[in-house]
What does this fold into?
Amino acid sequence: MFVLVEMTDTVRIPPWQFERKLNESIAEELNKKLANKVVYNVGLCICLYDITKLEDSYIFPGDGASHTKVHFRYVVFHPFLDEILIGQIKSCSQDGVHVSIGFFDDIVIPPESLQQPAKFDEAEQVWVWEYETEEGAHDLYMDIGEEIRFRVVDETFVDTSPTGPSSAEASTSNATEEVQKKEAPYTLVLPTCQIETVAFKKCLR
It folds into this structure.
């Protein structure tokens, strides 16, 4: 689930932090910059693990801060393919079941990946597994907050970097619509029939 990723960055340390140890200041700046951020094609950054190398620091004309090239390792959330994770159902919609593992919420199980036959209950806004037994069908409700176990088989990264101002021809309403359609930078999506197990505390209603 978590991996160590080697990274390199140039860190700027302002003059008022010169009295501190360089490693401490750099660690703080790296966590400010990366913690809880998604790096494209890398994963969700959690925290700094260690600093492996510090190169020479430079002070440039017109800027009293020091600039240091740093080699470091960072703890990143990036599940490997076929890894089984346990989370909780955060919400349900026509698009599927949205799952959270506490610190990461962008996990979606589309309707075709649920145990079949399944239907969406509009009144209660939950998905229902119509479980067949010898005594007949029983509706098993996927309630909000229930524990779910799933297998990771794919991931989606979206480049959410700014694209610049809209063209002169674009209207304000179009720009607002684009903001509303902004996608999550990192999403785990479970393709067809890859849900492993669902545990229900209150299955029958």
